[in-house]
């Protein structure tokens, strides 16, 4: 968390720290869905942890983020908060928990703040979500926006497609980012956006941008932890860099354990109570 927190500070990162870092310090965000994983990221100095609705297809076995419920986010976000000491924990508002309007959004966000203890929430949408963002900010709940590819709208997009290509689409994306800022969000995720456009948006905003598949010009970057750690099988998306091969390690460990049990070498004498 070097550069995000003032020298010598022993506290959680806040949205004020994130705002102050714009133009001065690039920072990383990772997702997490349990206390143990979150604790490791906290120890590594990751300043912001997102309890994303990506828990759907990365933790809960759903095919997408759409089925994720607010109850599920609240339970897993509380675990992440308990597992961390320094990181700012952001809880995602899942599909169906804010689309009805400001009142529903406020009710949902309050649950994550009160029950899970998150320091902020994130929701998808630009101009269409401005009223919800404004209501949460007015109630004292920090909000991170999310524009570009918004996975909760994957059915409307017809798949996971890059957003903002072409003059009309680019103009709308800029308008969406500005709407998020004007509504009071402290930051905005730019997902699956051409790098040149993401850089232009970053330069035009006073709030930090967090890129995922949006090139190096953003103020920060976020990855789903299972992607970054190589936990998923199959070929990763273009924007993903794998920093480990956790899935292969776990498969090897499980096979070795099963073999030790089968041949009687586990438990050995040192594993037996006397």
Describe this structure in words.
This is 3-methyl-2-oxobutanoate hydroxymethyltransferase. Homodecamer; pentamer of dimers. The structure is a single chain. The radius of gyration is 20 Å and the shape is globular. The mean pLDDT is 95. Helix 4 (70-82) packs parallel to helix 5. It has eleven helices and eight strands. By secondary structure, the protein is an alpha/beta fold. The chain has helices at 15-20, 35-44, 55-58, 70-82, 102-116, 130-138, 154-157, 167-182, 195-204, 225-228, 246-263; strands at residues 27-31, 48-51, 88-92, 120-122, 143-148, 187-191, 209-212, 220-223.
Quick structural summary:
The protein contains eleven helices and eight strands. The chain has helices spanning 15-20, 35-44, 55-58, 70-82, 102-116, 130-138, 154-157, 167-182, 195-204, 225-228, 246-263, and strands at 27-31, 48-51, 88-92, 120-122, 143-148, 187-191, 209-212, 220-223.
């Amino acid at each position: 968390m070097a550069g995000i927190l003032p020298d010598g500070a022993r506290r959680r990162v806040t949205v004020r720290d994130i705002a102050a870092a714009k133009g001065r310090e690039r920072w990383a965000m990772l997702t997490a869905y349990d206390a143990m994983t979150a604790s490791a990221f906290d120890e590594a100095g990751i300043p912001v942890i997102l309890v994303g609705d990506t828990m759907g297809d990365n933790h809960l076995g759903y095919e997408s983020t759409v089925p994720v419920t607010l109850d599920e986010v609240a339970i897993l976000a509380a675990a992440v908060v308990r597992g961390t000491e320094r990181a700012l924990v952001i809880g995602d508002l899942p599909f169906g928990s804010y689309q009805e309007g400001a009142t529903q959004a406020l009710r949902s966000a309050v649950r994550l703040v009160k029950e899970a203890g998150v320091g902020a929430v994130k929701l998808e949408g630009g101009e269409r979500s401005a009223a919800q963002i404004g209501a949460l900010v007015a109630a004292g709940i920090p909000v991170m926006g999310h524009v570009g590819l918004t996975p909760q709208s994957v059915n409307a997009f017809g798949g996971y497609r890059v957003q903002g290509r072409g003059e009309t689409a680019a103009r709308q994306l800029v308008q969406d980012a500005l709407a998020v800022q004007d509504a009071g969000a402290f930051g905005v995720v730019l997902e699956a956006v051409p790098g040149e456009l993401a850089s232009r948006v970053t330069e035009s905003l006073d709030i930090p941008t967090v890129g995922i598949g949006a090139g190096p010009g953003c103020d920060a970057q976020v990855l789903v932890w299972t992607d970054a750690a190589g936990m998923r099988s199959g070929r990763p998306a273009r924007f993903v860099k794998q920093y480990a091969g956790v899935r292969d390690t776990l498969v090897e460990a499980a096979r070795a354990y099963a073999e030790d049990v089968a041949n009687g070498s586990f438990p050995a004498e040192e594993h037996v109570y006397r």
